[in-house]
Design a protein that fits this description.
Layout: E1 2-9, E2 12-18, E3 23-28, E4 42-44, H1 48-61, H2 78-88, E5 96-97, H3 98-108, H4 116-124, E6 137-138, H5 151-160, H6 173-177
Parallel strand pairs: 1-4, 5-6
Antiparallel strand pairs: 1-2, 2-3
Helix pairs in contact: 3-4
EC number: 2.1.1.63
Pfam families: DNA_binding_1, Methyltransf_1N
Family: Belongs to the MGMT family.
């Protein structure tokens, strides 16, 4: 059984989800893939895991560097989980690129190449936003692209972590569609 809780953040409302094993979801309301891993049979109820996630978010939005959140119960394909585990390794206040993650996975699998688009697809479907820091992945050219919650929220999260630089930019609408 999954349980949900609403959380009001400085960047908008969030929906948190958890089961008995751990946190299963954290989405900005209205985001792409919103509640994609949420079971149809769920109940709004405050649980110890959801309370812990709320405290983690309180600390995060206060500008503190909370410890990695546990427990997580990540729902996705093996490939997605591999990508999301790499995301969890990106330090607070730092960024990486889709291409760097693609190279890392290609090396792990003994491949010559891994398409960055495959990485982008997995990053975009991250069901536990912020805690699994998909906002720390940027384009090779420094663009803030590919965030399911919207690039303005991505920029705000990076600014909070002091990882946003003047060289980063939000692509024009036409570039986002490409």
């Amino acid at each position: 059984m999954q349980y949900t809780k609403h959380y009001s953040s400085p960047l908008g409302n969030l929906l948190l989800a958890a089961d008995e094993q751990g946190l299963t979801g954290l989405w900005f309301e209205g985001a792409k893939y919103f509640a994609a891993t949420l079971a149809d049979d769920h109940e709004e109820k405050d649980t110890p895991i959801l309370e812990a996630a709320s405290r983690w978010l309180d600390a995060y939005f206060a500008g503190k560097r909370p410890e990695p959140f546990q427990p997580l119960h990540i729902l996705g394909t093996d490939f997605q989980k591999t990508v999301w585990e790499i995301l969890r390794q990106i330090p607070y206040g730092q960024t990486t690129t889709y291409q760097a993650i693609a190279r890392q996975i290609a090396a792990q699998r003994g491949l010559d190449h891994m398409p960055s688009q495959a990485i982008g697809s997995a990053v975009g479907r991250n069901p536990i936003s912020i805690i699994i820091p998909c906002h720390r992945v940027i384009g090779t050219n420094g663009s803030l692209t590919g965030y399911a919650g919207g690039v303005k929220k991505k920029a705000a999260l990076l600014k909070l972590e002091q990882a946003y630089t003047d060289e980063m930019f939000i692509p024009e609408k036409e570039e986002l569609a490409a």
